[in-house]
Amino acid sequence: MRVFIITGISGSGKSVALNALEDAGYDCVDNLPVDFIHDLVQSLSKQGREKLAVAVDARRGQSIKELPAIIEQLKKHHDVRVLFLNSNTETLVQRFSETRRRHPLSKPDDNRSPQVALIDAIEKERLLLADLAETAHNIDTSHIKAHTLRSWIQDLLKNERPGLTILFESFGFKHGVPRDADLVFDVRCLPNPHYDPQLRPLTGNDPEVANFLREHPEVQAMGDDIRRFIETWLPKYQADRRSYLTIAIGCTGGQHRSVYLVNCLFDYFKKKSQAIAEDDFHLLIRHRELDLNSLKKETSA
């Protein structure tokens, strides 16, 4: 049985994620008590159900600390994936202000204590969920809309087979390092097409930019070094029984160099995966800044 555990910081998009999984044919349960997860999985499995998504968050209080042990137990018999949604504090404060909803941890522990400030409640929640964040596939929703989050989750669901899913992601350092990255490589030292007026409006997806970067030996050398590092340590990540590995490549704006190198790495490992057992790993590709720019154009159109 495929089981998705959705958790993360309140206000980061768990409802959107759960709805996306429901649209994909999953049985979905929100805010299920942690103690009931194992029984629910067993019951649905006996009924022949194949897909379940459960949202668990800070509303469960200290009992959520039991979740990692429950997940490990379930993994012995089921394909369990943990999705952790996160966002920066500034964005979360804005979202709670817009919706005028209370944070689930803003209520004081007793009636004599004052209500917990929103920022303090968010930080308290981060500490409570820290262990889950360490072992889950993280998605940073700080700067993305619900439409984009649904699209990214649909990409994750394309691989229904077991095995490690590797996500290659390009980004721009001036927009912040992705919070969901497991490995980050900085390629800002490479020749920058931005300074060529003809290449500036293009991206690493365009042949002109790819040809420009291909002509510089240091670009090839950087790509080879990153590829060798991944190949060397990939078996260790697979042996760690993790479901997802996000590899982020960053340049200044996330438009040229990082996009080109992510495309190169994706193409290389795609050919590699076709030459070995299919279930060893699966590949996804994401260009964060290009996705966001595309969404902005759609919104303004």
UniProtKB/TrEMBL annotation:
This protein's record includes keyword GTP-binding: yes
Domain of life: Bacteria
Positions with a binding annotation for ATP: G8, I9, S10, G11, S12, G13, K14, S15
Every RapZ-like N-terminal domain range: 1-159
One matching Pfam family: PapZ_C
Positions of the RapZ C-terminal domain: 165-290
Keyword Transferase (UniProt): no
Keywords: ATP-binding, GTP-binding, Nucleotide-binding
GO MF entries: ATP binding; GTP binding
Binding-site residues, GTP: D57, A58, R59, R60
NCBIfam families, sorted: PRK05416.1
PANTHER family per UniProt: RNASE ADAPTER PROTEIN RAPZ
Protein name (database record): RNase adaptor protein RapZ
Lineage: Bacteria, Pseudomonadati, Pseudomonadota, Betaproteobacteria, Burkholderiales
